[in-house]
Specification:
The protein is an all-alpha fold. It folds into three domains: 1-199, MFS general substrate transporter like domains (Growth Hormone, Chain: A, Up-down Bundle), CATH 1.20.1250; 268-346 and 412-522, MFS general substrate transporter like domains (Growth Hormone, Chain: A, Up-down Bundle), CATH 1.20.1250; 351-410, no CATH class. Helices cover 77% and strands 1% of the residues. It has helices at residues 3-27, 33-40, 44-72, 74-94, 98-126, 132-161, 166-170, 177-183, 186-196, 203-208, 212-223, 225-241, 259-274, 277-293, 295-319, 325-348, 356-359, 382-393, 395-409, 414-429, 432-443, 449-477, 479-501, 510-525; strands spanning 351-353, 378-379, 410-411. The chain has a three-stranded antiparallel beta sheet with strand order 2-1-3.
Length: 528
């Protein structure tokens, strides 16, 4: 490995650590909810808001971080994100009230939004064209590692809380476990801030600010002197061709010249989330439990989901610059479609029946006598079974014990359900998960890249929020089978869109892509 490539990889890995913080910050709350609910006396709606509030401010963070990075630089925005993560972690750990905890979590959301947008943008502007896809994917890999690290650290803190070790008792891991879970993020956040001090500013941003000598110095370290000079001239020519207004208004994204790349970016942004990835990630234990395998097995299989996500993200990173963006997306969306058909079909063929054997396993809090009207009756869908529960027990008890009763009553192929979910996660992680951000960093020309990535990232986050919000409603009203089949239908639409309209971007410089994707559109838009 030559010194230039070694240096570039080191810088890319440092910047991509922002993805680790994002994944950690977003998922660490999963270990906290069970403790803050009784401590603060929360309703279910308040508990849900404590989890989801970060998504809303992350969406706002994505909107402002792109233009802000155009104004003050990519590096400064990333350093601000590190500071935000640190403040959020400390305030979350010491929050005396529910309201202050929510405020602290929302502050962290701005760091999440900035990491998600600016880190891959910086890496794309720094990396050589041949390795760009792989290096941009470092960010997605770090997100996945951050999610796994949060689950592990939560588990470790719980274990320390039960430890007899004097130091663990002194630090009060037991009575303050959830505070330690949230506060632990301070360590990687501080590490990220100081690591960024050795990272140079993006050379393309430096050229945009007429700081050519600094840009040449950075590009020489990443590409060598001869190639660096060529890259400087290419970027300058590209910026000269785009010369005009210093501030790019949002309306510019909707000009005819950018129509093609904007449509591609928006469709991929929507498809990535509307196929249900966050529904599966956030509700995986519940989905597994309702397949009838039991709570403990459901938890272990949810852990397996995280492992599959990590392994296939690594697969995508290794293949994105060899196979290309389009083949990975096509294979992945085909896999998502098939997996969702398997999952939806498995639930569609399931039946639900309470038998004397299953009634013997009822939780003690449920009065078996009240369920006798449903005994030995077969229901052909989870919706019908849930409706019968409400009519038999009443709305509140039915909602309280719904998951446990479905797990006892369902007759389904649990192996196929597991295969469907793992196949979906593997297909997503090997394709549209990391590849979407690679495409976003390549599709848009220099002058509007920050604004454009913020805009399509905003749409992606908004769709993610809606999927998370309506998934329980979909299960209650449409049932598991219909919900997953709908996700599969969206994946099929995305598959045909990719085959028909997505260009291949691997191995081309950002300036070359701007000419091919935007320049042609510009010429077409002009009158002859």
């Amino acid at each position: 490995m030559n010194p230039q490539l070694r240096y570039t990889i080191r810088i890319a890995l440092i910047v991509a650590f922002g993805g680790f913080l994002m994944g950690f910050d977003a998922s660490v709350i999963s270990g906290v909810v069970g403790f803050i609910e009784p401590e603060f006396g929360l309703t279910k709606l308040q508990l849900g808001w404590a989890v989801s509030c970060l998504t809303l401010t992350a969406t706002l963070g994505m909107v402002i971080s792109g233009p802000l990075s155009d104004a003050i630089g990519r590096k400064k925005v990333l350093m601000l994100a590190a500071v935000v993560y640190t403040i959020s972690a400390i305030l979350s750990a010491v929050a005396p009230t529910y309201s202050l905890l929510v405020i602290a979590r929302m502050i962290g959301g701005f760091g999440v939004g900035a990491s998600l947008i600016v880190a891959p943008m910086y890496i794309a502007e720094m990396a050589p064209a041949r390795q760009r896809g792989q290096m941009v994917s470092f960010n997605q890999l770090n997100i996945v590692i951050g999610i796994s690290a949060a689950f592990f650290s939560n588990y470790l803190i719980l274990k320390l809380g039960k430890s007899d070790a004097g130091w663990a008792q002194t630090l009060q891991f037991g009575p303050h476990n959830w505070r330690w879970m949230l506060g632990l993020e301070t360590l990687p956040a501080v590490f990220y801030f100081f690591s960024l001090l050795i990272v140079p500013e993006s050379p393309r941003w430096l050229i945009m600010r007429n700081r050519q000598s600094e840009a040449l110095e950075v590009m020489t370290r990443t590409n060598g002197e001869t190639e660096a000079q060529k890259q400087i001239e290419t970027v300058q020519a590209s910026l000269a061709a785009e010369a005009g207004r210093e501030r790019t208004p949002l309306t510019e994204l909707f000009l005819p010249a950018l129509r093609k790349v904007l449509v591609i970016g928006l469709v991929i942004a929507v498809i990535q989330q509307i196929t249900g990835i966050n529904a599966v990630f956030f509700y995986a234990p519940m989905i597994f439990e309702q397949s009838g395998i039991g709570t403990d097995a459901a938890f272990s299989q949810a852990v397996l989901v995280g492992l599959i996500n990590l392994v296939f993200t690594i697969v995508a990173i290794s293949l994105v610059d060899r196979l290309g963006r389009k083949p990975l997306l096509a294979f992945g969306l085909a896999g998502i479609t098939i997996s969702m058909l398997v999952l939806g079909g498995s639930f569609a063929s399931a039946t639900y029946q309470l038998t004397p054997a299953s009634m013997a396993k009822l939780p003690e809090a449920i009065e078996a006598a009240r369920l006798e009207p449903m005994l030995e009756k077969t229901y052909d869908s989870d919706v019908a079974f849930k409706r019968a529960l409400r009519e038999t027990l009443g709305a509140e008890p039915a909602q309280q014990f719904e998951s446990a009763l479905i797990a006892l009553a369902i007759r389904a192929n649990a192996t196929l359900i597991l295969f469907g979910i793992l196949g979906f996660v593997a297909s997503f992680a090997a394709s549209v998960g990391p590849v979407m951000w690679v495409l976003f960093s390549e599709l848009f020309p220099n002058r509007v890249r920050g604004l454009a990535i913020s805009f399509v990232g905003f749409v992606n986050s908004a769709v993610s929020f809606l999927v998370q919000l309506v998934f329980p409603w979909e299960l209650a009203n449409w049932g598991s089978a219909a919900t997953f089949l709908i996700y599969g239908g969206f994946a099929a639409i995305g598959f045909f869109f990719v085959l028909a309209l997505l260009p291949e971007t691997k191995g081309r410089s950002l300036e070359q892509l701007a000419v091919e994707l935007v320049g042609a559109s510009t010429r077409t838009a002009r009158p002859s």
